[in-house]
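hey so i finally got around to running the thing on that chain from the lab meeting. sorry it took forever, my laptop kept dying and i had to restart like 3 times. anyway pasting the input first so we r on the same page abt which one it is
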Amino acid sequence: MDVVYSKVLGIDVHQAILACCMVSCNESGELVTEKKTFKTYGQDLHELANWAKTANLDLVIMESTGIYWYTPYQVLEKVGIRAAVVNAREVRQMEGKKTDMGDAEWLAHIGRLGVFCRSFIPEKIYRELRIPSREIIKLTDDLSAEKNRFSKILNEQIFRRNGVFSDIFGVNATIVIDGLLSGKSIEEILNEINFNVLKKDPSEIKAAIESGTLNESACITLITIREHIQFLERQIENLRSYLHEKVEQLHPESLHFLQTIPGISLDSAVQLLVELGGDDMTPFVNAERLSSWIGVCPGNNESAGKRKHGHIRKGNYYLRRILCECASAGVKTKGTTFQSKFRALRIRKNYKQALIAIVHKMVHVIFVLLKNRQCYIDPQIDYEKESADKNARRWVKLVCELPNWKIVARNLSNGERFASSNNA
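ok and heres what got predicted. didnt touch it at all, straight out
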């Protein structure tokens, strides 16, 4: 095989050490190897960066070992070296020959021949924005867990959530719970409830509250959980505000493009752009490779002419999770292509398989929109009719304000046209 890079540095990344091997050719054409070991903290990282910079390397290649590759990658990036990060599964050493320095030398050799595939590493600004974006996902999980604990204690002590309130964190449910925690009487609590909104009989709510008791231990626990829920909501809102501000400065137009897709909200669009590393689709070449990188494309599993079930591969977990939430909302939007496609798939596939197929379709749509810089137009949606239904009353009101105009409106809610005449 032909040599692509003449001077290569291979780095085997570990938690505490970095095994480095530099491979090059001398004037007589013989391979020369230089091996060093560095620690993953302090002055050793700066020595590694200086050594790599002064060596005039053609390539630096390292394994993507957990999160440990991130620190040496950043240090090398500061001195102007963009290392090639590769998947350890694709460059695994042969059994029986695996050592730390042997792995580094193996990486250097395959780097010289160019037989490796670079992992996509976004620009520094997006790597930094991924930290608060992924923290939002973790905090949202914690928030859901706390709400479930709050609901469980209430069901054990006082009333069944589904029997009285559809949402125990709604306005009226909060009035009842706060009143019980503060020691108010049932009559005082019932006087504060807005029954026009709740649409429940007072006697039913009174019976539900009286059916259980709220002891001291439960009160202290509920107050603690309530405070934690409010704290988590503030933290999530702060991180979302920060992310929105940063991404809107970078890609205001792309945010608008993504929000035209059914199921994608502003929060989802922001997180999508952060995880994708911006709106530049050039590194992914086409939508198929983007789907493969995310991990939502079907795998190939064929043997002896028989095609077996192909599972999706591991990819960007956070991006796949966001897209699954968007697809779940998109298939519930009436009259869209996503909904009709999902219903057709549900005939022969289970819910999760059909949803992943919709995610795969949505990824193709996102790629085309960001590449061509255009809004999404669903072929099954009559946008003119939707605009008329949404704005008809406002249009009529504006016309009525004009002098000498008489309006005769018929069933505007049903989308029928209205007649107008000028008596001037």
